[in-house]
């Protein structure tokens, strides 16, 4: 019995890994275009699979933390709409999405860099203040 239970756990782990990998692939607009051009986004079985994935646990924090590309959740949402599924066949549409995604990443990278620089400056200012003898905690 223990072997069967272990095998069942291994199957669940494998299913999680496969679904995780597939969901993350959806963050790539060129992959969406690939799926659309090959007719997957017109196949009702595939559309049902996308609905199944959306209804799963991916938006729950304990599972979302495994996502390296959280943009995939946004695209998974959009894939629920027939209009979006029709549009991603177009290379021009994909190029626009890809460009917008790059701009978004650049914005947040710059923002994060500025935030980290401010934090480093604050730590440096605190260190300078403490070495000058100011602001040191008093002994009680």
Would you kindly provide a written description of the structure presented here, covering whatever features stand out?
There is one protein chain. The protein is mainly α and 140 residues long. It has 7 helices and no strands. It is flat.
* Portion in helices: over 70%
Whole-number radius of gyration? 23 Å
Low-confidence stretches: none
Helical run tally: 7
Return the structural class.
mainly alpha
Pattern of helices and strands: HHHHHHH
How far is the first residue's CA from the last residue's CA? 63 Å
Main location: nucleus
Protein name: Mediator of RNA polymerase II transcription subunit 31
Subunit structure: Component of the Mediator complex.
Subcellular location: Nucleus
What is the gist of this entry?
The longest helix has 41 residues, at 91-131. This protein has 140 residues and is mainly α.
